[in-house]
Amino acid sequence: DTGVSQDPRHKITKRGQNVTFRCDPISEHNRLYWYRQTLGQGPEFLTYFQNEAQLEKSRLLSDRFSAERPKGSFSTLEIQRTEQGDSAMYLCASRIGGGEQFFGPGTRLTVL
Amino acid sequence: GENVEQHPSTLSVQEGDSAVIKCTYSDSASNYFPWYKQELGKGPQLIIDIRSNVGEKKDQRIAVTLNKTAKHFSLHITETQPEDSAVYFCAASTGGTSYGKLTFGQGTILTVHP
Q1: Confidence class for position A98, pLDDT limits 50, 70, 90
Q2: Which of B36, B49, B101 is the closest to A33 by Cβ?
Q3: How many whole angstroms separate alpha carbon A61 and alpha carbon B111?
Q4: Alpha-carbon distance B88 to nearest alpha carbon in chain A (angstroms)
Q5: What is the C-alpha to C-alpha distance for residues B43 and A103, in angstroms, rounded to an integer?
Q6: How many CB atoms lie within 10 A of CB B5?
Q7: Is the CB of B99 less than 8 angstroms away from the CB of A50?
């Protein structure tokens, strides 16, 4: 257990539905990242928060995706109008300053 | 942007043997190179990392080497044990406006046979 928690751990949804995932980073960590990992691949960067500010978004993050980090604590990632191609593991990581990134256990999304 | 290539994709060794996984990167500005171990159903866990001002780093049975000129780095595991079986990922990142985001390799499935 790295101290980063994610909820839910698994989510099954039907195409077209909206889903929201939550990440709770290690409490003093001011930097938070979201990654997506498809089967047999390494994680791919989606977006980065420093405190409450979203400072970078990958081109992978289409307009159906939105992320927030209110008050610089927990973060949410919402996917609207889900597609089968959104099926993946969504990973959250946090760090403080230039330290290592600690990953959560991930949320596995299956879109039917 | 950065591109990281990792080889081999699968590696099978006998308990007690050594295992070596190699990665190359494309962005000469990359300055931080972590290695992660991922077990089934879990998120990646850092096992060792190296920064560009160091050529080699060792932690018990695990070592990492970095060749900045050739833009490649390697993970060495000695005296492998069955519990070392997992997927291993290399990654690279730069500082500055990249905000430390990691670019990962494709992963290596390591199997250690008792």
Answers
A1: confident
A2: B101
A3: 34
A4: 9
A5: 6
A6: 13
A7: yes
Q: Which residue has the tokens 């996984």?
A: B21
Q: Which residues contact B32 (CB under 8 A, 6 or more apart)?
A: B49, B50, B51, B52, B92, B93, B94, B95, B100
B106 and A55 in contact by Cβ < 8 A? no
User: Per-residue pLDDT tens for A78-96?
Assistant: 999 999 999 999 999 999 9
What lies within 8 Å, CB to CB, of B63 at 6+ separation is: B48, B56, B57, B75, B76, B78
Whether the CB-CB separation of B105 and A42 falls below 8 Å is answered with: yes
Bridge partners (DSSP) of residue B103 are B92
Q: Are B75 and B21 in contact (CB under 8 A)?
A: yes
